[in-house]
Write a structure and sequence with these properties.
This protein has helices at about 10-25, 30-35, 55-65, 100-110, 130, 140-155, 155-165, 175, 210-220, 225-235, 260-275, 290-305, 335-345, 375-380, 385-390, 395-405; strands spanning about 45-50, 70, 85-90, 120-125, 180-190, 250-260, 280, 285-290, 315-320, 320-325, 350-355, 370, 405, 420-425. With about 425 residues, it is of the alpha/beta class. It has a 6-stranded parallel sheet with strand order 3-2-1-4-5-6, with helices on both faces. Helix 12 packs across helix 13. The chain is globular, with a radius of gyration of 22 Å. The protein starts with 9 loop residues before the first helix and ends with a strand. It comes from Deinococcus carri.
């Protein structure tokens, strides 16, 4: 790859970054990921839940026509069509609602009704924790409030799931525990490390966490939640049954079929096909968006100044899942927050970059993420936009919308964590 010509319009390089995002998502579409696994005996029932529930269910029922199925996608999904004989019960994400509860109750009823020796195919994707919600020991409103508190506190997904598993009738292996059927679960991972027990809070996977672990999470973030604490404390004393532990679900087979790493590798192939060198930094980045932006900025500066640890020009690809400790009431999400901190850190020596969520929705905004260009800061100053002001309000979405640099895609029907691409010239 030759260094970008100064005469090349910025839109060309921005289009290259957007093309990498869209192409990578298409390459790892749920139906493509599922295809190699839809072989063998026909299932007697297919249950799909998560942000990719509908494309996964459609692919499964194309391979196994006539099999009854149930999909639980997010509310607002534009196309709810499924083959005849299948049912769709949308739920709420990221905070569960009555629809999520109704869907979980229906799913439990269907899997409990399957006789011994029947085959159950479970298709799981990110977002399933909220979409399939059957509160236990707390009301739905109390669980909603607790989920919001954990998200606002910046708790990691593993911590949130440890709590949710012990306040649920379906999570932490309890869904699989409820059926006599042979269970085959195919999972698309939206979590760092691709641990099946963490994906959608592991409804078909044995759970190594305990009631005591869940209590410790509430303590760590100073969350009161008295009703949840009473329930968890009762479980910690042994008054309530624990989630099934490793070795206790012999009738279940879990397989992870897609992940953030697969998404990044697809992007790397996209760039390679265009003669653009790229490197995958990691698919396991976690922590505050501000800190991740600082790390990426330092790397960009080192490459530019010293040619280490990589020689430019090249594209830096990274994934994982950032977090944001919310202190303001603005619009945006972790990907736009990352982009705005990257802009603030690099200053006038900007960079072409894209940071976006693979699900097409970043936080409470209508954008998937945001672009940066080398002149982003100059354009912001020309409009009297101060990045620090927007960061203080957690209002990155409004900042990039004002610049015209928000990436708007709508829900992708997928969820493979974050996608970041930085072009270092």
């Amino acid at each position: 790859m030759s260094a970008p010509d100064q005469a090349v319009p910025q839109t060309d390089l921005r289009a290259l970054l957007e093309g990498s995002y869209r192409s990578a998502l298409e390459a790892v579409a749920p139906a493509r990921l599922l295809a190699p696994y839809l072989t063998g005996p026909r299932p007697d029932f297919v249950l799909a839940f998560g942000k990719a529930a509908l494309p996964m269910l459609r692919a499964a029922l194309e391979a196994y026509p006539g099999v009854p199925g149930l999909a639980v996608p997010p509310l607002g999904t534009p196309d709810l069509s499924v083959p005849e004989g299948a049912e769709v019960l949308p739920g709420s994400h990221p905070v569960p609602d009555e629809n999520s509860t109704s869907a979980a109750e229906q799913a439990l009823a269907r899997v409990r009704a399957l006789p011994e020796g029947a085959r159950l195919l479970v298709l799981v994707s990110g977002g399933g924790s909220a979409l399939l919600s059957a509160p236990w020991g707390v009301t739905l409103a109390q669980k909603q409030a607790l989920t919001r508190d954990l998200l606002r506190a910046g708790a990691a997904i593993e911590e949130i799931n440890a709590v949710r598993k012990h306040l649920s009738q379906v999570k932490g292996g309890r869904l699989a525990q409820a059926t006599r059927a042979q269970v085959r679960a195919l999972l698309i991972s939206d979590v760092i490390g691709d641990d099946p027990s963490v994906i959608a809070s592991g409804p078909t996977v044995p759970d190594a966490t305990t009631f005591a672990d869940a209590l410790a999470v509430l303590d760590r973030y100073g969350i009161a939640a008295p009703e949840a604490r009473a329930h968890l404390s009762s479980g910690a004393r042994g008054d309530l049954p624990e989630t099934p532990k490793p070795g206790e679900l012999p009738h279940v087979e879990n397989t992870v079929i897609g992940s953030n790493r697969v998404l990044l590798e697809a992007a790397q192939q996209f760039f390679g096909a265009r003669g653009v060198r790229s490197v995958i930094l990691s698919d396991t980045f976690a922590g505050e968006a501000r800190d991740l932006a600082g790390f990426h900025a330092s790397l960009v500066q080192s490459i530019r100044s010293y040619g280490t640890p990589f020689q430019g020009p090249l594209v830096l690809l990274s994934g994982g899942e950032a977090t944001v400790t919310v202190r303001g009431e603005g619009r945006g999400g972790r990907n736009q927050e990352f982009a705005l901190w990257l802009l603030e850190t690099l200053g006038e020596r900007g960079v072409y970059a894209l940071s976006a969520g693979s699900d097409g929705i970043d936080g409470n905004s209508d954008a998937a993420g945001a672009f940066l260009t080398p002149d982003s800061l100059a354009r912001a100053h020309a409009q009297n936009l101060d990045p620090r002001d927007f960061l203080a309000r957690n209002d990155s979405g409004s900042f990039f919308a004002a610049l015209g640099d928000a990436l708007i895609t709508g829900p992708s029907g997928h969820n493979l964590n974050d996608y970041r691409a930085l072009l270092v010239e």
